[in-house]
């Protein structure tokens, strides 16, 4: 007869999995809908900027991509600190997921930024403070991704990856303050000295940032699920190898 | 390159990158889950043989 405790536990786990799956589907639908609304506002509501023309509308996905990179890097750093203090596997898995999503948003930032700069400044890239410090964070996230991949074979590297994530997060305030402190060319839209956009542009930007935030949560949940499954598989493979070794030892 | 081309290119790249990432995640999740199922199935204990029946089968 099966153990009633185990039956209840299995039932509860299944229930939690099903409800979290439903939440994820609902969030994914919400993300898709809000992104569609955002695209609609960008193309049919937000006015065309007088100087830059339609290319200025790249900004409505460029800024949310930067926001996504900041948030994911911050979450990665926080969960890395939790991992370094507690050594909990869940915190490390979440940090790995956040780092991966942060790199994804960093890629979007690094692609859309030069396209905007080409129209605004006439060049694809300028070594001005905000761009340079954002590139540094992007490279830190790329290095973090390489370390995470290596830590799949050498788990000891997870601590180094966690330390790198904390260093990456220290770059976020530098990026944010770069324009004010070092007088770069990059425009300031949000924060002190920001502005210069119409209410319609502000609303469109707000919706786009909201849509990307929901998208970030969905991607983070999907990536975390993959990371947890990958670790479970690694444990099963290790147990399988031990069992095989034991069987071989018993035969000899 | 005109502003319109840059705008379309930027948005296309954003959607291609995002869609590609989601597809990669989905494929990786499916592959890992299949491997987990295969490993668990390989180590599941063999089903116990049915208990011997009390009455012998009738010879017809």
Index terms:
heterodimer, A: 252 residues, mainly alpha, 6 helices, B: 60 residues, rod-shaped
How would you characterize this protein structure?
- The complex is a heterodimer of chains A (252) and B (60).
- With 252 residues, chain A is mainly α.
- Helix content of chain A is 81%, strand content 0%.
- Chain A is elongated.
- Chain B has one domain.
- Helices cover 68% and strands 0% of the residues of chain B.
- Chain B is built from one helix and no strands.
- At the A-B interface, helix 2, helix 3 and helix 6 of A face helix 1 of B.
Low-confidence runs of chain B (pLDDT<50, min 5 residues)?
Answer: none
Quickly give the structural class of chain B.
mainly alpha
Q: What's the domain count of chain A?
A: 1
The string of secondary-structure elements of chain B, in order, is H
The N- to C-terminal Cα distance of chain B equals: 90 Å
C-alpha termini separation of chain A: 37 Å
Low-confidence stretches of chain A: none
**Main beta sheet of chain A: strand number and arrangement?**
none
Greatest interface (CB-CB under 8 A), with counts per chain: A-B, 33 and 26 residues
Cα-atom Rg of chain B, whole angstroms? Answer: 28 Å
Strand content of chain A: under 5%
Number of strands of chain B: 0
What is the oligomeric state here? heterodimer
Radius of gyration of chain A over all CA atoms, rounded: 22 Å
What sequence of helices (H) and strands (E) makes up the elements of chain A? HHHHHH
Tell me the overall shape of chain A: elongated
* Helix count from the secondary structure assignment of chain A: 6
């Amino acid at each position: 007869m099966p153990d009633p405790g185990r039956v209840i536990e299995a039932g509860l786990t299944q229930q939690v999995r099903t409800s979290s799956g439903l939440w994820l589907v609902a969030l994914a639908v919400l993300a898709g809908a809000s992104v569609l609304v955002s695209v609609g506002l960008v193309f049919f509501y937000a006015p065309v900027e007088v100087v830059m023309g339609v290319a200025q509308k790249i900004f409505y996905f460029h800024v949310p991509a930067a926001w996504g990179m900041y948030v994911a890097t911050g979450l990665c750093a926080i969960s890395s600190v939790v991992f370094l203090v507690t050594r909990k596997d869940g915190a490390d898995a979440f940090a790995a997921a956040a780092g991966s999503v942060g790199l994804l948003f960093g890629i979007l930032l690094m692609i859309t930024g030069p396209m905007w700069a080409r129209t605004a400044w006439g060049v694809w890239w300028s070594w001005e403070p905000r761009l340079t410090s954002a590139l540094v964070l992007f490279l830190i996230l790329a290095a973090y991704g390489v370390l995470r991949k290596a830590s799949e074979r050498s788990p000891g590297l997870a601590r180094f990856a966690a330390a790198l994530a904390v260093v990456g997060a220290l770059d976020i305030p530098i990026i944010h303050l770069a324009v004010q402190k070092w007088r770069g060319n990059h425009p300031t839209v949000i924060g002190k000295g920001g502005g210069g956009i119409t209410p319609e542009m502000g609303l469109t930007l707000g919706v786009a940032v909201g849509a990307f935030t929901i998208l970030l949560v969905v991607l983070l949940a999907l990536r975390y699920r993959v990371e947890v499954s990958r670790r479970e598989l690694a444990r099963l493979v290790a147990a399988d190898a031990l069992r095989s070794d034991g069987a071989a030892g018993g035969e000899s | 390159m005109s502003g319109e081309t840059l705008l379309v290119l930027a948005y296309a790249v954003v959607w291609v990158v995002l869609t590609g990432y989601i597809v990669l995640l989905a494929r990786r999740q499916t592959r890992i889950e299949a491997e987990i199922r295969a490993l668990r199935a390989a180590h599941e204990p063999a089903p116990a043989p049915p208990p011997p029946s009390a009455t012998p089968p009738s010879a017809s």
